[in-house]
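yo, DNA methylase N-4/N-6 domain-containing protein is done. seq:
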Amino acid sequence: MSRKSELEKLKGEIERLKKELKRRKKYGLVWEEKPEEVVEMCKEKLPVLKEVKNKEIITDKNKPANLLIEGDNYHALSVLNYTHAKKVDVIYIDPPYNTGNKDFIFNDRYVDREDAYRHSKWLAFMEKRLKLAKNLLKDTGVIFISIDDNEVAQLKSLMDDKNRGMFGENNFESLICWRRRTNQPNDKAKMIAKVAEFILVYAKNSNALKEKKAFNTIPLGETRVESYSNPDNDHRGPWSTTPWRASRGQGGTKYKIITPTGKVYDEVWLGMKETFKRLLKDKRIIFPNSGNGKPRKKVFLRERQREGQSAINFWFGREYGDNLTASSELNDLFGGERMFDNPKPVNLMKMILRIKTNKNSVILDFMAGTGTTGQAVLELNKEDGGNRKFILCTNNENNNGSGYKIAEDVCYPRIKKVIGGYKNLKGDKVAGLDDNLKYFRTDFVDYDEPTDKNKIKLTEQATEMLCIKEETFEKVINQKNFKVFKNTNHYTGIIFDQAAISAFKKTIKDIKGKFSVYVFSLGDETFDDEFKDIKQKVQLSPIPEAILRVYRRIFK
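structure:
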């Protein structure tokens, strides 16, 4: 090779390296990727759901069903990416904190503090699940993640990393500090005792969240209520005050105000002069004796309670609960038995729901543990007449050697007791919060390649997934080649053999209502021509292709 050719080759390599350096991230987390067995198995087996019929709870057929999914949350989230894409309003999770004290399992082994890849394994575990979870949120959706100081820095950096498909720092909403214990720890070995944890909050799209004001004010906290008094016996009740003078950056109107003592203030005020005069006449303006005597506006407790207040990022007090409260709640349900370490209190979950849900919201907790989120949803529905629905996902592992399986022995019985009623530790009967629950387990269909045989297998096993997607659980027609399910105002038809289309159409001819119809197809055919005579009645989708599209994206 000539010297000139060598030089050209060297220049080309330098240019390639420059481009590579530009492509690489300049800032952020870097960790060693660790393969995870539950993820790798999806290259040959596709997750589906199977209903556990004997665990179904139905108290009112006209109400929607909540879901409890037993299995690995990666597999559950994969299924939900088909059934619930962009349908979820709020996600809350309480992931393993990775303390090194047998709280985090990776590939069926506890990750201890001496593991050199402890943080890498945890980040790999979280990234895969958070990516799937993000797809489930509506554009106005929000995720709340409990965490402590072992991984809070890493989690914040991960969530900020849009290059990895995460939420991005522009969608960061808050880092809430929750005081999880009220007593002072007697741990003299530590310089600073730990009494608080964190809740990291990200929006799917902060702009959409704020433009649509898809969040709520909350009732005044205990300390805020205590700050109101009525020293002048105002007939409108207790009040507090806010400055009438505008702060820097607030804007306002400049004019002169003369106080009762004759002081003159020529400043920028929050409202127009006419507004000030009206408030003064209505005895809503005071001139305090203490301080500089500048006017302040009365704010009445009853009005502020009606308006509510923005949530703050320090949560402490009875309205938020603590670890002791959470343990007591669980003990009350299970007769004093210690079923689970460090559950979360119901009030903590209800505060999250009050901030971000409306009466018809869908709430997901894919690390559900004891099921606190489910109980909080049911209680809040009872309080305000809401129809919120929860989806809980949890494995069925032995809880840290306690002998109790998390799904079967803790989470499900808790929800069952809350729905049906129970006796507490005092022997008092606690009334049930009538609602519905469907219980599913993750299962798998062998699918190492897209053969016709494998497509048929997946279609045959997809019935429960389709019912979940359409929220139609009542079976009304059960033929060999097609089935029909319904809820109060909608039907789902599943046709397993194209030759049965004509028979299916005859069967549903006199049924009033809209149909979502899924027709087996080896390709992506929707059979529009076959249904053109009833096209106003049906919405068509091919299966299993609609499912496979989602799985190809996830498991690529």
